[in-house]
Specification:
Layout lengths: L4 E5 L4 H10 L4 E6 L14 E3 L5 H11 L3 E4 L12 H22 L3 E7 L21 H15 L4 E7 L1 E3 L17 H10 L4 E4 L11 E2 L1 E3 H15 L6 E6 L5 E2 H11 L6 E4 L8 E2 L4 H7 L8 H17 L6
Helix pairs in contact: 1-6, 2-3, 3-4, 5-7, 5-9, 7-9
The structure holds uridine-5'-diphosphate.
Length: 327
Amino acid sequence: MPKIKILITGSSGYIGSCLNIYLKKSFEVYLVDKEPYQKWSKVSKKYFYRCDLKNKIKFKKFILKIKPDIIIHLAGQSTVDESISWKNYNDNNYLVTKNILSIMNEVGINKIIFSSTAAVYKPKDKKIYEKDVTAPSSKYGKSKLKSENLLTSNKKICSIIFRFFNVCSALKKPLIGEYHKPETHLIPIMISKFSKNKVMEIFGNDYNTKDGTCIRDYIHIFDICNAIKKSIYFIKNKKCGNYKINLGSGKGYSNKEIANIAMKLMRHKTNLQYVKKRKGDSQFLVCDIKKAKNILGWKPKKSTIKNIILNEIYWNKYLLKKNVSRV
Ligand code: UDP
């Protein structure tokens, strides 16, 4: 039987590059990104196409050439930064999704798996369910919700919309993990800073939470890749339907707890520095994951916080050895 053909957009990013390594054992995986791939991402040139997805004509040519069965659309402007213009978010998230859907309609592809975010929800101090109210406060969240609505209003295309919570850590074999420049996420910044004896800034300690710091739901990149693999098998024989699914571990940890666990695992003593709150941060973002379990037969296997941090430490050592700096 021929392998299912998958196209990953945004394949040079953190999730895309890990996903490629994870999926290529089972599927024929093609990659597209406007950026070149990272040197550690073990990409075969044969499967990589460099293209800005805003260029619909160029992208359509590539799609016609490879005719993927399923598109996994991860490309986009994913940094949450209110100083980035709305046009940038709208062009790279919404308009690119619109381009992909219109190409899919034109060439007859009808399955897409889409990376959305926890940032589409209206924050609340309890676990978030998929049916909860959406009311994004950031431009990033708004552009993702607008893209979700486009997908769900298209009745000819079957879509799985994953709302990722805090994706983190690294795959160990072969080793690959998170690298952004600039890095903005808590765990990679913390592990990099601790390993260099630099002061770690925590944004805010007077939130209305158990220890005053924000609480997040961290999910290991392995469990994200595994959920996507299961969703490929789920969607492959479907003709239509839209599914919105939270992906997290279902557990919340405060910034202070993360720091304490990391310090213990790294045998590191450091002064954390509490600085002012970051604009737009929600104090509590944790999801319910029953829907992912029920629909996909998935459950998190590697998302204990200890395992997440240990694998991140391992990946950080590799980056240090290669003289790659994240902070
Ligand atoms: N955070 C922090 N210091 C940093 C980076 C992040 O205290 O250098 C906090 C941030 O304010 C939030 C949590 O860590 O409370 C998770 O932030 P991250 O950017 O990793 O993910 P987000 O949930 O905001 O997408």
